């Protein structure tokens, strides 16, 4: 609750819920015990308030009692009220008794303010709330021939035209302190009808995601309001009644219909909306720094544009971070501030949860088994080979919200390419250290061969092979595969090298931001483009909030979606954030005019160096990798992911995307010879190709794909 002098609140056109007519506090003095109330003290207090402030209790229609429901306290409180009112009126059964404690219990030190808020809401809605869960009156309370009755139902609060709604509240402290306040409704003067002229509507939030929600909330408010709000009042409330934050949206509208139309267009990802500006105040501060530093220049420009009614330019200044006095727009008087939707806080849970080691899944026998990692469930190693196995059913967020349109036009839940990287990292960490939180390692020469579509429960395994027998703890090959009716199907292949901890590297984000001057794209536009290519991302895989484009590069803003806000501690390479960095490449495709109609999928990567775990909010610097020019079917990227403090967490080099089933050249002779030799007589273990030969075979494929000698589709057929 905000208390303000009535004259000041009227001057500032604040929404006034009620006015305090009189108040008082006293003390019980000596009683039978520290918890025993004193009816004489309560009566003296109430009559003192009525006398000092000239209040007639005969005009009080509602009492919010302390009302704890005790056998002793309630009768004493009612007797004190009867004695107080009896001095001034003989009317009966006109004043409702109630207590918010019947709704929410005793709030201890907040009990008084809870009752006060109840009275303000009753005045606002002009209704008397019921005292719920009331069945039988305390045998020691007699309300016959008294001014009071217990209100058991929601009642319209009607008063004669010559009177106003008035109520009182009592709150009694544990040690004998008594407080009593009388409140009344505020009868406002007739509002001045504002001219129907265009208004500046401004919205801001901490994050782009919350800004989108603010737009949705305002649209819902306009659509469902019982009485259409005054446009000027709505605009003024948003201008002066909300704290400006970094993510900003400003627009000019001449009517509520035009406002709703522009807000819907913004949510739909439309570009070039007339008289609408969108930006990040901190990122644009340099462009308005000169104005902000010189108050005379700022005042001159703002006053000139106000006089010329250049509202779109004024809105754009605010979006870029320049604060100015909104009252300059209202020469004939300030509009009335009104109640509007408040800030849509992120729904983040902070309850203590089970540790990773306590996470479980159901094994083949239906028993609960502790999992090592969300992507690495059990250790299935033998003396022959180090292996791990996972079982997915499609309900996992990285499958349920990651759907891909495959070559046969079916849309399937597909394990993200970046999830294989985290699976490999966790497996290497488990094998080397016995836990999965090792960060300083590098994954190299990775190739993705077959997508893993999960229509029903699927088991996936990862095998590790020592590459250097002299240093087995440093270099490992990995292969991620599943078993099918046709045999073993390899999905991803690569190697890993453990790295010593390195000094924290930092990106010069401010310098990079200055290079991203070509355009900015918001999440709705980006995810619309991704969907058009056949990549359907649900809420848990929409971590990309915005990108800023430069020459052959971009900066992407990433934020862990609220639906999986507590999942960050389970991962080092979080699938949603890592995938968001890859998703950002759609900005380069759009900017280059090469948006394919089939989904681009990961097929090869030179390296990924892991320096630290992903954080909830990240920045990704995405650019074309050095080397041959990217064509309309293939993109090769370098990506650095850093946290909010610009500390680099992951460095990715040579990450190649290729359109699924793109046309390609014939198989190169070197790979053909490898395939022929492998199929003709490669040694087998348990009916499979020897593991070392298998790794050599796939390294040949990786080189051929990276050199554009074969397509990913042909590599899949060969694998």
From TrEMBL:
Superkingdom as given in the UniProt entry: Bacteria
UniProt key word Metal-binding: no
Region described as N-terminal hotdog fold: spans on this chain: 373-503
Location of the region described as C-terminal hotdog fold in the Swiss-Prot/TrEMBL record: 517-666
Domain spans labelled Ketosynthase family 3 (KS3): 1-185
Domain PKS/mFAS DH: 373-666
Coiled-coil ranges (or none): none
This protein's record includes keyword Phosphoprotein: yes
InterPro entries, per the entry: Ketoacyl_synth_C, PKS_Beta-ketoAc_synthase_dom, PKS_dehydratase_sf, PKS_DH, PKS_DH_C, PKS_DH_N, PKS_mFAS_DH, PKS_NRPS_Biosynth_Enz
Protein name (Swiss-Prot/TrEMBL): Ketoacyl-synthetase-like protein
Keywords: Phosphopantetheine, Phosphoprotein, Repeat
Active site residues according to the UniProt entry: 402, 579
GO cellular component terms listed in the entry, alphabetical order: cytoplasm; plasma membrane
GO annotation (BP), single: DIM/DIP cell wall layer assembly
SMART domains hit by this protein: PKS_DH (SM00826), PKS_KS (SM00825)
GO MF annotation, one: fatty acid synthase activity
